[in-house]
Amino acid sequence: MSYAHQGGANYQSVPNPSDGSFNRNMSGNPQGFPAPGRRSTGDASGSASGSAESGRSSNSPMISNNQGGGGGGSYVGSQRDLTTNGEYGPYSHLRKGSMGKMGSRPGQGRGAYAAGGAAAGATLGANLNQHDAGNRASNYSAASSYGGDNKKYYQPQQDGLLWDGKGEAEPDDYLHNPDSKRGDSLHPCSARGILNVLALVVIVTGLLALFAGYPIIAHYTKRPDNTSGFNIGGTNGSGQVPNVPSILGLVDNDTLPADREWTNPDGIKHHCVFSDEFNTPGRTFWPGDDPYWTAVDIWYGATGDYEWYAPEQINTTDGHLQITMEDRPTHNLNFRSGMLQSWNKFCFQGGYIEFSAILPGSPNTQGWWPGLWTMGNLGRPGYLGTTDYGKTGLNWLPGMRLPACTCSGEDHPGPNNNVGRSSPEIDALEAQTAQGVGEASQSLQTAPFDLAYDWDQDVAVLHPGGGTKINSYTGGVYQEAVSGLSPIPNKAYELANNPTFTTFGFEYVPDYDNDGSGSITWYIDGQQTWTVTGASTPPRPNIGIGRRPIPTEPLSIILNLGISEGFQHIEFDTLQFPATMKVDYVRVYQRDGQPDRTSCDPADHPTADYINRHGDVYNNPNVTQWRDKYNWPKNKLIDGC
């Protein structure tokens, strides 16, 4: 195969003068090679050729030491020469391509490289000759540039180490083309591309139809019900209530007919408007579990309790509700217990409410704080932002943001700004012990306060046989306590010899006319204990406060078991864990012949819109002050209007 100098090629072959073939094929100066000691002045048209006779492969690397880029020469290298004293000699890194694309390339007649400039060629040739063990006399003769060893070397091109790439187009060259203007950026759409686009259109259209189109179409094509059904429990237009076990009505189906009526000592008959017998086992009260009750997941910080209220502490077992206090650290508090609320689910205005319960511990146990009580729906127990107090007149009052003198246009729940709104509290039971005797604190928590919390105790009625006495505690910064202490039967305790469910309740008549005509009477085990009327909290002109009427607000129901030094001193040695308060039922009765008032959002005392507008406070127990979220409404007394 012939290796010819091809316009601009930078390498050509050079014979090894010590090789035998050199002597056989060359006489005197080989054709195209300059004489020793002289520079060649020939042109660059020389060629190297090989023949079958020489026995050399056409792929044998050809080596050049053309120092001047002048006359050509003919030589066929030997593969044998490449392997003598090593694979490629001491400059094998040059042959293996470490200086650019210097190695032989298939299909290009390996070794057909053009020499560089004369000076550069001479320089590299001189460097190579210094390594050679043969004739070192001439720096110009290719023949004398190689001594006795048979190694052959590549002379790197001097005007650029990389392969020039001419005539070597490869299939992936377009990937490396830096020219962004190739003119091939647009292509005709393929069938596959069209199908991909159509598939995306179908998917997007289907999603829009499902989540946007269907609801809109359903809204405008829905047929109106042919009954004017309403109310919880499935009441339809005919007034029939279906007996569906999974749907709880206001009155529990397990409430016996005889228990659906109640008559007070004055002979006034009442009918049951709400009941829960807790007979179904396994009920839980996590948020959303029950239509009327919710077990809260909070710390009751208002009284500095030692327990965390957790929903898992409340369930129904053996036909009754069970609230368990455990000595189990939770959220950095020592104990865990439960609080059940009907807040914003079931409320009532007026009537008689009765709880049947067995209390934890015994009369000798001091520290448990079981509670069976009610509170106005505008305040949510444990959510301090809804029950905090602010300056009104001469007092700091719980939840008294909304007096009857609220300025027009200020934030107010209604029905108008001339109706005072608050969150009163009536307690059927807060149990405590004193000297081995259990006592029920039965109270009305009210505001504004009398001077020194001195409500008019002379007009209170202590019923004979009840053993009730006026509570020496009359209030604090949150409320004034109109309270009596009544003895609790020993049988009402969990650790009694024969624990028996005992009833605790109160009947109240709201003072809708604000004339002092309302009243509250408390009961234990069906017997009246004591009564308070509006006369006990009359107007106090000397300190600028009006009458504190018997509550007219819709009241929600709360059942809980707590432990706190804020209620009574705790004797931990007397406590046994776990402790349980059991509730057999909760029932609410209202007078016959009068409309039932069982809404948390009645027209005369609405709450729903106000609660919805301030949901972040009513649903976040970490908000402890109303002012953290909203401005305090202005009133005529303090701010003027």
Automatic annotation (TrEMBL):
<dbReference type="InterPro" id="IPR005629">
    <property type="entry name" value="Skn1/Kre6/Sbg1"/>
</dbReference>
<keyword id="KW-0961">Cell wall biogenesis/degradation</keyword>
<feature type="domain" description="GH16">
    <location>
        <begin position="251"/>
        <end position="594"/>
    </location>
</feature>
<keyword id="KW-1133">Transmembrane helix</keyword>
<dbReference type="GO" id="GO:0005789">
    <property type="term" value="C:endoplasmic reticulum membrane"/>
</dbReference>
<feature type="compositionally biased region" description="Polar residues">
    <location>
        <begin position="76"/>
        <end position="86"/>
    </location>
</feature>
<keyword id="KW-0812">Transmembrane</keyword>
<keyword id="KW-0472">Membrane</keyword>
<feature type="compositionally biased region" description="Basic and acidic residues">
    <location>
        <begin position="165"/>
        <end position="183"/>
    </location>
</feature>
<feature type="region of interest" description="Disordered">
    <location>
        <begin position="1"/>
        <end position="114"/>
    </location>
</feature>
<feature type="region of interest" description="Disordered">
    <location>
        <begin position="157"/>
        <end position="183"/>
    </location>
</feature>
<feature type="compositionally biased region" description="Low complexity">
    <location>
        <begin position="37"/>
        <end position="60"/>
    </location>
</feature>
<dbReference type="GO" id="GO:0005886">
    <property type="term" value="C:plasma membrane"/>
</dbReference>
<dbReference type="Pfam" id="PF03935">
    <property type="entry name" value="SKN1_KRE6_Sbg1"/>
</dbReference>
<keyword id="KW-0735">Signal-anchor</keyword>
<dbReference type="GO" id="GO:0015926">
    <property type="term" value="F:glucosidase activity"/>
</dbReference>
<feature type="transmembrane region" description="Helical">
    <location>
        <begin position="194"/>
        <end position="217"/>
    </location>
</feature>
<keyword id="KW-0325">Glycoprotein</keyword>
<comment type="similarity">
    <text>Belongs to the SKN1/KRE6 family.</text>
</comment>
<protein>
    <submittedName>
        <fullName>BETA-GLUCAN SYNTHESIS-ASSOCIATED PROTEIN KRE6-RELATED</fullName>
    </submittedName>
</protein>
<dbReference type="InterPro" id="IPR000757">
    <property type="entry name" value="Beta-glucanase-like"/>
</dbReference>
<dbReference type="GO" id="GO:0031505">
    <property type="term" value="P:fungal-type cell wall organization"/>
</dbReference>
<feature type="compositionally biased region" description="Polar residues">
    <location>
        <begin position="9"/>
        <end position="30"/>
    </location>
</feature>
<dbReference type="GO" id="GO:0006078">
    <property type="term" value="P:(1-&gt;6)-beta-D-glucan biosynthetic process"/>
</dbReference>
<dbReference type="InterPro" id="IPR013320">
    <property type="entry name" value="ConA-like_dom_sf"/>
</dbReference>
